[in-house]
Write a structure and sequence with these properties.
Blueprint lengths: L2 H18 L6 E2 L2 E2 L4 H21 L5 H4 L9 H6 L5 E5 L7 H4 L7 E5 L7 H12 L5 E7 L3 H7 L6 H13 L6 H19 L1 H9 L3 E8 L4 E4 L1
Parallel strand pairs: 3-4, 3-5, 5-6
Antiparallel strand pairs: 1-2, 6-7
Helix pairs in contact: 7-8
Bound molecules: zinc ion.
The site of zinc ion has 8 residues, from helix 7.
């Protein structure tokens, strides 16, 4: 049997296993509402990373073959009327770090705020306060990622435009004393989460009340995995 055929067979088995692995979540009023939002994010990332690694191994496999299968979808009729995102994600604008993709979610599930370097600027804080207070989003994740260009720029001495300097300055503050990109990315994500706590009474109060859980994570492009840090 040709190697290509074997690979096709192994992909088919992987798909069969994948489809049987997880029952679709129940919907409430047309919305997906996982009972454990953090577990739902991590489960979604497991599906993504498995597809990601399969697509790396097998030139015939594509991510779209395995993602968005056998899982909850929000009803379009419900989404026309409102939104009930069960998680909020603050992350980088990097084109490879799309939360909906790497957590295998569908429209209406994640409330996402992005800027290069995932800094908690005023607009990000305000958007997060909206997601907590108006949309009642119960989980907030700040996520850094491997190979972050914004953090790399903050580590380097290269001169930048005034706007880029403004973007990079808070990152430099977070990563002071770091020389490795990977370490700097982690420090920057933790620092952004600390800034959010410092800057938002509403966020702190929501954590105290148990209405919000704040977590920090790192997305590794080589494995497709998101880990809590
Ligand atoms: Zn980045």
């Amino acid at each position: 049997m040709l190697r290509r055929e074997l690979l096709k067979m192994s992909t088919a088995f992987a798909l069969a296993g994948f489809k049987g692995a997880r029952a679709a979540e129940a919907t409430e009023g047309g919305f997906c509402n996982p009972t454990d939002p953090l577990q739902a994010l991590m489960d979604g990332n497991k599906r993504f990373s498995s597809s990601w690694r399969e697509a790396m191994r097998n030139p015939d496999a594509t991510l779209s073959q395995q993602l968005h299968s056998n899982r909850c979808f929000n009803a379009p009729a419900a989404l026309i009327e409102s939104q009930q995102p069960w998680a909020t994600v603050l992350t980088c604008a990097d084109s490879r770090v799309s939360p909906s993709w790497i957590f295998d979610t569908t429209p209406g599930e994640l409330f996402v705020i992005r800027s290069a370097g995932n800094t908690a600027f005023d607009e990000a804080i305000a958007s997060i306060e909206y997601s907590i207070s108006v949309l009642r989003s119960p989980l907030l994740m700040v996520m850094g990622h491997s190979g972050c260009g914004a953090v790399a720029a903050a580590l380097s001495e290269t001169s930048l435009t005034p706007s880029l300097e403004r973007l990079i300055t808070p990152i430099r503050d977070q990563i002071d004393g770091s020389s490795r990109l990977d370490d700097a990315v982690r420090r920057n994500a933790r620092g952004a989460a600390a800034n959010l706590r410092e800057s938002s009474d509403l966020l702190r109060q929501s954590e105290t009340d148990g209405a919000l859980k704040l977590v920090v994570s790192y997305f590794d492009l080589s494995s497709g995995r998101v880990s809590l840090i």
